[in-house]
Task: structure prediction
Amino acid sequence: MNDEGHYTTTQSLDQLEQEIAGAIQAIKNDDSAEAFRIKYLGKKGLFRSLLKSVKDLSLEERKTYGGKLNALRNSTEERFGAKPWEESMEGGEEECFDPTLPAWPIPKGSIHPLTKTRNEIVDILVGMGFELAYGPDVETDYYNFEALNFPKHHPARDMQDTFFVSADVLLRTHTSPVQVRVMENQKPPIRSIMPGTVYRNEEISARSNCQFGQIEGLYIDENVSLADLKGTLLSFSRQFFGEDTDIKIRPSFFPFTEPSLEVDVRCFICKGSGCSVCKQSGWLEVLGAGMVHPNVLASSGIDNEKYTGFAFGMGIDRIALLRYGINDIRLFYENDTRFLRQF
Ligand code: PHE
Result:
């Protein structure tokens, strides 16, 4: 349907001129060009029908209106004939390529703070002579508990703490089962670190999650003593937390180590004077450790008369939390890029 009814006065042709200029600009391809040609310049187009009505006008009007209409049609044909849209189509691009324009910024990702923390810990320990080893996330009761000297009635076997897949299969609750797998497959001297994800059937809160990362350490040889454990952990702590770091060793209990220890590092935020991160104590609890229990050595096929060893295990999430001063562990798992981009 044509709308020639609108353009019957000389002034209204100014409006038409504007409309046409806009319509030519809006042409993007051959299809929209053809639509334009049919609408304005075709046999049944707007100009044809407007020009047809000129003969009915007075002589004066024919001169002014008719003259202007003719001029507009000619300029429209000229502009349309120049095919201005082709410039922005394929091939035209080359002509308007401007090599001096700045490039589009390429968005960069960043290493996840947990991965970063794990990599730094692993790098330090590998630098001290430990080798990497891995075990499965889905474990058997044997490796997660039995071989680690957990008595049958131990509370850690309670459904509350462990995600069971079946009576005998579970999601590992710590990386210590990898110790057993390494000892079964290697002869001393053994120096291994075993990073991995562990799972606990715990309520999720700002301080604890049902899934987190651990790094296990194991050193077995002749004459390995508690002094070796202490020296190793002190050296690690100074490399990781800072040269002036001190460690404090407290007695603890794990079924698979004897004696068992918990290790605190001097709070690297307040340097020991007391702050909210260390809850005014001046110390941060970072790992569990101990001398490998003779029963564990024996059940893994290691001669416990000849060899001794130490083991330690640290939580990656907790260390990352302390290190970056983050107050909610769940932020690590929400994948909010506003949080992750800061690292
Ligand atoms: N497996 C213990 C835990 O998850 C940590 C640990 C590892 C303790 C090795 C002693 C020796 O809490």
Q: What stands out?
A: Residues 174, 176, 216, 254, 257, 288-290, 311-313 surround phenylalanine (CB under 6 Å). Strands lie at 131-132, 138-140, 169-171, 190-199, 211-221, 247-252, 257-266, 283-292, 308-315. DSSP finds 13 helices and nine strands in the chain.
